[in-house]
TrEMBL record:
Stretches that traverse the bilayer: none
Molecular function, one GO term: sequence-specific DNA binding
Domain named Response regulatory: residues: 7-121
Matching Gene3D superfamilies: 1.10.8.60, 3.40.50.2300, Homeodomain-like (1.10.10.60), P-loop containing nucleotide triphosphate hydrolases (3.40.50.300)
Name of the molecule in the record: Response regulator with CheY-like receiver, AAA-type ATPase, and DNA-binding domains
Length: 450
C-alpha cells in the first residue's frame, strides 16, 4: 500500500461533514468510504480493511473513544484519527493514550487534515521500520531503538515522539525495570535539543546532604570544602535534557528549589547570589505512585502538578509478551558481546516457552539479568531449563517477586502453586521434566497438582 492509493473511512453523524471530507480526500487520490452511524462503521471495518479511520469524537449511540476501542478489538493495529469540536489538552492526551494516531479540533483547515493523514502514514512507516530492525536479528542493533510489535508499546513510542516536539516537562511512570530511562533517551533524541547533552541521574543514589549541590552547583567558598566553583547537573544539561530518575526520592526540602527552577527557567548555585537562566528540558521518572506521596505529605503537590504536564506510563513486560522472543534475541547478542563471547548462545524452545509464561515482576531488567546469569553459568552453547533453574537460585530478582506477591496478598501456597504452574507451562506439560526442575519426585508433584 502506498499513501496515494490508501483506503480511508470517514465517520461523522453530520452528513454534510462526511460529504465534504469525502470530496476533499478523494481529490488527494484516496479511496474513501463515509458512514454517519457507528454501527454502520463497525460493519464496514469488519468487511474490509482500511488504512486509516477518520472519526468524530462526539456522536449519538457511541462516543468516538468507545468506537475506537471497538475498532481496535476487531483490528488492533488500525490507525484512527479523531476530530472534535470540543477540543482540550486533556481530551487530546486521553485520545492518544487510547490509541489515536492524531487529534484535530474543529474547525480546522483542510490542509491540517491532509497533513495529519500524511503524518499518520509516515508514523506508521517509522514504527514498522523500528519493528523490522528487531526482526532482522542483526548482532549490533541500536540500543536506543525500541524493538517491539506490541500495540501498547507502539502507542507509547508514538506519544513519546509527539511529546519530544514540545518543551513541556514529562513524567514517566511504570514499574521498575520497564525501560523508563530508554524512553527518556528516546524523547531527547527526537527533541529540538537532540544535539545538546543528555544528563541522567538517579535521585535515590544521591547522598541526602549533597542533593542541592549536585543539582544546582556550588560556588567557591560556599562551605569549607568548596575550594572551587563546581557546576551542577542543571548547568551541565544546558541546551539539552536533564533526566531525574526516581524523582519520588528527592528530599522534601529540595523540592521548592526544583519547582522554582522549572517555573522560572533559572537556577542559583549553592553560595551564589546570582541567578543563571538555562534552557533545560526536564524529564522525571518514578515507579512509585506520586499522588499517594502527595497525600502522605512526602512530596509537594505543586511540584507534582508541575512535573505531571505530560504523563507517559511505560507498560510492563506482562503487557507486551509478544515482544519477548525478539527482546531475548537482542539481549542475547548484547550480553554475549559485553561478556566477550565470540559466538552467541542459543535458546532452547523449552526456555523460550518458560520466558513467555513467566510473569516477569522485574520486567525487562529481570529478563536481562536472568539471561546474563544463565549465560555465565551455562556449560554449553544452548540454554536449557536446567541452566535457568541454577541461575534462579541467585537472589537479584527475588525481592521484586516477593514484593509483588505480598502486594497481591499471596499465601505461601499461592506462590507454590504459581511456580509449579509456570514450570509446567514452560515444559509443555512434561511432568517428569517439571518434577526434576522443582526438585520433587513425581508422586509429590502429582499430589500437589491434586
Amino acid at each position: 500500500m502506498t499513501e496515494e492509493n490508501a483506503r480511508l473511512l470517514v465517520i461523522d453523524d453530520d452528513p454534510g461533514v462526511v460529504d465534504y471530507l469525502l470530496e476533499m480526500l478523494r481529490q488527494q487520490g484516496y479511496s474513501v468510504t463515509g458512514c454517519t452511524q457507528t454501527g454502520q462503521a463497525l460493519e464496514a471495518i469488519e468487511k474490509e480493511p482500511f488504512d486509516l479511520v477518520v472519526s468524530d469524537v462526539v456522536m449519538p449511540g457511541m462516543r468516538g473513544l468507545e468506537l475506537m476501542a471497538a475498532i481496535h478489538r476487531k483490528r488492533p493495529e488500525q490507525l484512527v484519527l479523531l476530530i472534535t469540536a470540543f477540543g482540550s489538552i486533556d481530551l487530546a492526551i486521553q485520545s492518544m493514550r487510547a490509541g489515536a494516531c492524531d487529534f484535530l479540533t474543529k474547525p480546522f483547515r483542510i490542509e491540517e487534515l491532509y497533513a495529519a493523514v500524511t503524518r499518520a502514514f509516515e508514523d506508521r512507516q517509522m514504527r514498522r521500520t523500528a519493528v523490522k530492525i528487531g526482526e532482522s536479528g542483526g548482532k549490533n542493533p541500536d540500543e536506543s531503538t525500541f524493538i517491539t510489535r506490541s500495540p501498547c508499546m507502539l502507542q507509547l513510542i508514538n506519544l513519546a515522539t509527539r511529546a519530544a516536539g514540545v518543551n513541556s516537562t514529562v513524567l514517566l511512570t511504570g514499574e521498575s525495570g520497564t525501560g523508563k530511562s530508554a524512553v527518556a533517551r528516546w524523547i531527547h533524541d527526537h527533541s529540538p535539543n537532540r544535539s545538546g547533552p543528555f544528563i541522567a541521574v538517579n535521585c535515590a543514589a544521591l547522598p541526602h546532604s549533597l542533593v542541592e549541590s549536585e543539582l544546582f552547583g556550588v560556588r567557591k567558598g560556599a562551605f569549607t570544602d568548596a575550594s572551587k566553583d563546581r557546576p551542577g547537573l542543571f548547568l551541565q544539561a544546558d541546551s539539552g535534557t536533564l533526566f531525574l530518575d526516581e524523582i519520588a526520592e528527592l528530599p522534601l526540602e529540595i523540592q521548592p528549589k526544583l519547582l522554582q527552577a522549572l517555573e522560572t527557567g533559572k537556577i542559583r548555585a549553592l553560595g551564589d547570589t546570582r541567578e543563571i537562566r538555562l534552557n533545560v528540558r526536564l524529564i522525571a521518572a518514578t515507579h512509585q505512585p506520586l499522588a499517594q506521596r502527595v497525600n502522605d505529605k512526602t512530596f509537594r503537590a505543586d511540584l507534582y502538578h508541575r512535573l505531571n504536564v505530560i504523563n507517559l506510563e511505560v507498560p510492563s513486560l506482562r503487557e507486551r509478551k509478544e515482544d519477548i522472543d525478539e527482546l531475548v534475541n537482542v539481549l542475547l547478542h548484547r550480553i554475549c558481546r559485553r561478556l566477550g563471547k565470540q559466538e552467541s548462545v542459543n535458546i532452547s524452545m523449552e526456555v523460550l516457552r518458560w520466558f513467555r509464561a513467566y510473569h516477569w515482576p522485574g520486567n525487562v531488567r529481570e529478563l536481562a539479568n536472568t539471561l546474563e546469569r544463565a549465560i555465565v553459568l551455562a556449560e554449553h552453547d544452548t540454554l536449557l531449563l536446567e541452566d535457568l533453574a541454577q541461575a534462579s537460585k541467585l537472589p537479584p530478582s527475588e525481592g521484586d517477586f516477593l514484593e509483588s506477591a505480598m502486594q497481591q496478598g499471596w499465601t505461601l501456597a499461592n506462590i507454590e502453586r504459581a511456580y509449579i504452574r509456570h514450570v509446567l507451562e514452560a515444559t509443555g506439560g512434561n511432568k517428569i521434566q517439571a518434577a526434576r526442575i522443582l526438585g520433587l519426585d513425581r508422586s509429590t508433584l502429582y499430589r500437589k497438582l491434586g
